[in-house]
Write a structure and sequence with these properties.
alpha/beta; Rossmann fold; 3 domains; 6-stranded mixed beta sheet; elongated
Length: 365
């Protein structure tokens, strides 16, 4: 039986999702969401929704506390601060919503197609499936309805049941338990390799844009895959693999050689991720500054000859910087224009993240 409160709750969730969808661009740029990455639920303040409450009738009785008074009399001592503001307040309700639900809202609003995993689905996970009943088992798996019916039937047949004073007593022979078996479930795994320029031209503002973009990339891909790994590579003139915390906080003051990161990414993929078993995503974040034109062209050769054949997608996101030349994206457009797996976007401010995500994932790769 579906309780009325369940229907009310579902309607309330639809209203909440509608409000989030209206302000999705703003939510995409919320810095505090990053700290919730990896958690099941996050709290989001939603304007314009009131939580349910009891409304009582008007109270026009005179008196204040135990003393005399009339409706409308001021409560307080002489000399206290003046009256409060007379403007209507904004109702802010914090609601808990899962990252999966946020990713679904993102996909619906951006009209993103579901990603169809490529490769062999020979990576499996074990899970328990309830398949039947049996006479023995732990109490936590007792099937209450079946047990109740057996006990009721036994008492009626034996003449022990009294309709005027109904009381059901369970005996050992009445109890029925759920049974299960372990099954293997195909699982499409994916790996995201993030690369970022950490040279002197990439400041805190640029890294904040990268963090926000990476957060939503991660949220959407995790919604489309059961198992996913993340790897992190930073580079200036040399590249190295780091953990997530270091990736977003390290800063160097040297030059830039982008090809060093692409070579390391190829090495990571070759050693750990077979393209026949893994869906591989490579994202590079930079301000577009590189040591030379020849190195930019070498990057394109590495993409064409070594990386793209293994990838679902290569995404290049160029963030605005007052110190970077911004030319690398032009080289990609010139030399990689016909490669469908190569997708580029520009993010100058937080407001551009919405359009950047749509650019990356609309192809549904």
């Amino acid at each position: 039986m579906v309780l009325p409160i369940n229907n009310d709750h579902q309607r309330f969730r639809k209203i909440v999702k509608g409000k989030i969808r209206e302000d999705l661009r703003k939510f995409l740029s919320r810095d505090e969401l990053i700290g919730r990455e990896g958690k099941k639920f996050i709290s989001i303040p939603v304007h314009g929704i009131e939580s349910p409450y009891f409304r009582y009738g008007d109270n026009d009785d005179g008196g204040v506390g135990k003393g005399d008074g009339q409706p409308g009399d001021t409560v307080g001592q002489p000399g206290e601060q003046g009256p409060g503001g007379d403007q209507e307040g904004r109702h802010i309700l914090e609601v808990d919503i899962s990252l999966d639900e946020l990713a679904d809202i993102l996909g619906e609003d951006l009209q993103l197609p579901r990603i169809q995993p490529k490769g062999k689905h020979n990576i499996t996970s074990e899970r328990d499936r309830y398949t039947g009943i049996r006479q023995t088992g732990p109490e936590s798996l007792r099937h209450f309805k079946r047990t109740f019916r057996r006990a009721l039937r036994r008492q009626i047949m034996s003449g022990l049941y009294n309709p005027d004073r109904p009381k059901i007593t369970f005996e050992r022979c009445d109890k029925i338990y759920r049974s299960w078996k372990t099954v293997l479930s195909p699982q499409s795994n994916a790996v995201i390799i993030y690369m970022m320029d950490v040279s002197g031209s990439m400041g805190d503002e640029q890294k904040e844009l990268v963090r926000l973009e990476a957060f939503w990339i991660d949220a959407w891909l995790r919604r489309n895959y059961q198992g996913i790994e993340s790897r992190y590579i930073v580079h200036d003139v040399r590249a190295g693999e780091v953990d997530r915390e270091t990736f977003f906080h390290i800063r160097e003051d040297g030059g830039t050689r982008i090809s060093s990161a692409y070579k390391l990414a190829h090495d990571v993929i070759t050693r750990n991720y077979s393209p026949s078993e893994w869906n591989i995503y490579l994202f590079h974040f930079s301000d577009g500054d590189n040591s030379s034109e020849s190195d930019s062209r070498e990057c394109c050769s590495l993409l064409t000859d070594q990386l793209i054949p293994s990838l679902n997608m290569f995404g290049y996101c160029q963030v605005a910087s007052a110190y970077g030349s911004g030319n690398f994206i032009n080289v990609l457009h010139e030399l990689m224009d016909k490669e469908e797996a190569v997708i580029t976007s520009r993010v100058n401010t937080k407001d551009d993240i919405y359009d950047s995500l749509k650019t990356f994932f609309t192809p549904g790769r």
